[in-house]
Design brief:
Blueprint lengths: L1 E6 L4 H15 L3 E8 L9 H18 L5 E5 L9 H15 L3 E5 L6 H13 L10 E5 L20 E4 L4 H9 L14 H14 L5 E9 L3
Parallel strand pairs: 1-2, 1-4, 2-3, 4-5
Antiparallel strand pairs: 5-7, 6-7
Length: about 220
């Protein structure tokens, strides 16, 4: 099966569904990852910072076992300044190349504007037209964005799908170690302690040692 992760920034893929990615790979699925924004330009970062972030993404996705990642390098935390059609069309170009059956992306009511734009672009790029390859479309939660939002932005993340990552949590953590510059010390929500705790809590919600949670945006039984 072909799987595509559409993430706003390098590290979102590991935070949101790193364990699920590793599980897909272990089962023999081919996983591609697309990063839409560069993840650093909003900080006034230079070319060296961008190169470090991309190198971290290549290392993290290699740990998870995906194909080499794709980078659009659109402006960080400014996707609302880019015409939505341009973001959508860029995703569509890769979609034609990959023809995924399963797509994972951001929750639509995250605090981060880039996450919300990517969610909307993915819904448009993978609209359910005749002959479309996608049978499953799922939204993940991103620590330090999803839970920091409010009802003023949109409905809270309410997962209805849980993936057992008990055997893949350490792989997820190893991938996040590649993004050491982006991680924070506990009790920040984007710390390794918090990531582990969230995985354990999502697992405990359904009687598992560790899990990742998703909102089902579409599931087609064929």
């Amino acid at each position: 099966m072909k799987v595509l992760i559409v993430a706003a920034h390098p590290d979102d893929e590991a935070l949101g569904c790193g364990g699920t990615i590793a599980r897909h790979v272990e089962r023999g699925d081919v996983v591609d990852v697309l990063f839409v924004a560069d993840g650093v330009s909003a900080r006034g970062a230079d070319a060296q910072a961008l190169a470090r972030r991309q190198d971290a993404a290549r290392k993290a996705t290699s740990i998870l076992g995906t194909q080499p990642p794709h980078f659009l390098d659109l402006p960080d935390n400014q996707l609302d300044s880019v015409p939505l059609i341009e973001v959508t069309q860029a995703i569509e170009r890769l979609a034609r190349e990959v023809a995924p059956a399963i797509v994972y992306t951001h929750h639509g009511a995250d605090l981060n504007v880039d996450h919300r734009i990517v969610h909307q672009a993915v819904l448009t790029a993978f609209r359910p037209i005749p002959g479309a390859s996608v049978v499953g479309l799922f939204a993940f939660e991103t620590a330090s964005s999803t839970e920091w939002s409010s009802s003023a932005v949109g409905p809270a993340f309410a997962p209805d799908r849980f993936v057992d990552i008990s055997g893949h949590l350490e792989c997820k953590v190893a991938a996040l170690d590649a993004y050491a510059e982006e991680m924070r010390p506990f009790p920040h929500a984007r710390s390794l302690v918090s990531v582990r705790s969230l995985a354990m809590w999502r697992g405990a919600c359904v009687g598992l040692a560790a899990a990742e949670a998703f909102v089902t945006l579409r599931w087609i039984e064929r």
